[in-house]
Amino acid sequence: MATEVSTFATMRADHRHWDHDHTNWLQDIAQWQQEHQQAVAQLKQMEELIRMHGEAVQNHAEVIEQHQCVERKHDQAMFGYVTGASNEHDEEAFAEEHARRARQHETQSQAHERIKKHHHTVMAQLSLLKQAMESGM
Fold first, then answer.
1. Residue 93 to residue 99: CA distance in whole angstroms
2. Which of 34, 74, 104, 137 is the most exposed place for a label (fewest CB within 10 A)?
């Protein structure tokens, strides 16, 4: 295998080529640095959005607990009526209350499914981002 002999002309041509590469690489890096700064700013925004997401999940849990408590009280009141321990309401009032609770339950069910879908999407995307960042360069 023959070794290529470098002449001043070929060495200067290499230098020009390398200088061109360096210029392009530095332009890439300048762009990357700008994008990095934008990513840092977006990360701060994402941190706030994630915090707000956590608060929304907590609020959702509180609403469910409130609905559950009201449902149990309604059930206890019906039991009291059926056993004769209470005559606060009649059967028609219980039925109206039950219909209202059923509509609330359906609304809550739809909200829960929206929140669940959103949560799973966000968590999956965050996991992918973390994996990409951890993969190294």
1. 10
2. 137
pLDDT tens for each residue of 30-50: 999 999 999 999 999 999 999
What is the model's pTM?
Answer: 0.73
In terms of Cβ atoms closer than 10 Å to its own Cβ (0-12, 13-18, 19+), residue 74 is middle
Q: Cα separations (Å) of 32 from 27, 36, 112, 130?
A: 9, 6, 40, 19
Q: How far is CA 115 from CA 37, 38, 57, 61, 85, in A?
A: 31, 28, 8, 11, 41
Residue 134: how many other CB atoms lie within 10 Å: 7
Which backbone phi and psi does 136 adopt, to 5 degrees? 80, 180
User: Could you say which DSSP state residue 28 is in?
Assistant: H
